[in-house]
Amino acid sequence: MRNVEFHNGNTMPQIGLGVFRVEDGEECKNAVKHAIVSGYRSIDTAMIYKNEKSVGEGIKEGMKEAGIDRSDLFITSKLWFDDFGRGNVEKAYDTSLENLDLDYLDLYLVHWPGTDEELMIQTWQEMEHLYNNERVENIGVSNFTIQHLERLLQRTDVKPVINQVEYHPYLVQNDLKLFLESRKIIMESWSPLMNAKVLNDETINEIASETGKSPAQVVIRWNIENGLVTIPKSVTPERIEENIDVFDFSLSDAQVNRINLLNRNERNGSDPATFNGKK
Ligand SMILES: NC(=O)c1ccc[n+]([C@@H]2O[C@H](COP(=O)([O-])OP(=O)(O)OC[C@H]3O[C@@H](n4cnc5c(N)ncnc54)[C@H](OP(=O)(O)O)[C@@H]3O)[C@@H](O)[C@H]2O)c1
């Protein structure tokens, strides 16, 4: 597994397992366990996914079967809108730790910026407090646009290590990518497969034939070539294995560019400029 390095010197595996919409209970526990046994070292959950408890169980069973320690893993969870603001963040962090049955997270993210700048800044200051008190290894953001980041960087002290955003061949967000590169903030791709929608794309399938890999592997490798962290979700054992089996081939610059050019600025999820947690 390849790692990326954050501006603070810490590292993160470039591929992790995402568990959004994975049912709490056996399904989630088994997916996490299978991922760890298959070589995954990073798991991405969130309080709002309501499956932190089974993620924690999967981690325990996976660690035991794989013969690894907690320090070999990189666990991410996220802070939801209900817990924004002064006096709330540390409590929410403790609840996530309790659910996961862990002592610390490797990465805690503000899940969305929301539409209230003051609240977003206050929330980040609370995140800084957690980080400065060494309760969490790294803090980052999710779904932040350039405008949100500019305000955050101007008004607060600790720079996020990562910005987790929707990113797939139909939404490449090149301006945001360049902005993050210039600030040494890692870009992380959520819905890298656009919920399997890009797997039928003609160009992706052509490149899959050219490389002898599956369409999902081509898309995940394209994330790697572009320097992103990526967290494909699957509950299917064979797909979980397939999605990290991307280190025995590479894409040429021309193949990477062909995929970059598929961009349609098409979002599968909510728009970060307006989303405030309500449908
Ligand atoms: N920060 C945020 O706001 C945010 C928002 C959305 C998602 N995320 C994170 O990003 C993760 C991934 O995004 P996502 O869950 O939306 O979607 P995704 O990873 O783009 O796609 C998942 C879908 O693709 C299928 N799939 C996975 N591997 C496959 C393969 N090799 N071949 C064919 N189909 C395959 C899965 O099916 P099966 O499971 O049935 O195998 C599932 O239906 C989430 O789980 C979550 O951790 C974050």
TrEMBL record:
<feature type="domain" description="NADP-dependent oxidoreductase">
    <location>
        <begin position="15"/>
        <end position="261"/>
    </location>
</feature>
<feature type="binding site">
    <location>
        <position position="111"/>
    </location>
    <ligand>
        <name>substrate</name>
    </ligand>
</feature>
<keyword id="KW-0560">Oxidoreductase</keyword>
<keyword id="KW-0521">NADP</keyword>
<protein>
    <submittedName>
        <fullName>Aldo/keto reductase</fullName>
    </submittedName>
</protein>
<feature type="site" description="Lowers pKa of active site Tyr">
    <location>
        <position position="78"/>
    </location>
</feature>
<feature type="active site" description="Proton donor">
    <location>
        <position position="49"/>
    </location>
</feature>
<dbReference type="Pfam" id="PF00248">
    <property type="entry name" value="Aldo_ket_red"/>
</dbReference>
<dbReference type="InterPro" id="IPR018170">
    <property type="entry name" value="Aldo/ket_reductase_CS"/>
</dbReference>
<comment type="similarity">
    <text>Belongs to the aldo/keto reductase family.</text>
</comment>
<dbReference type="GO" id="GO:0016616">
    <property type="term" value="F:oxidoreductase activity, acting on the CH-OH group of donors, NAD or NADP as acceptor"/>
</dbReference>
<dbReference type="InterPro" id="IPR023210">
    <property type="entry name" value="NADP_OxRdtase_dom"/>
</dbReference>
<dbReference type="InterPro" id="IPR036812">
    <property type="entry name" value="NAD(P)_OxRdtase_dom_sf"/>
</dbReference>
<dbReference type="InterPro" id="IPR020471">
    <property type="entry name" value="AKR"/>
</dbReference>
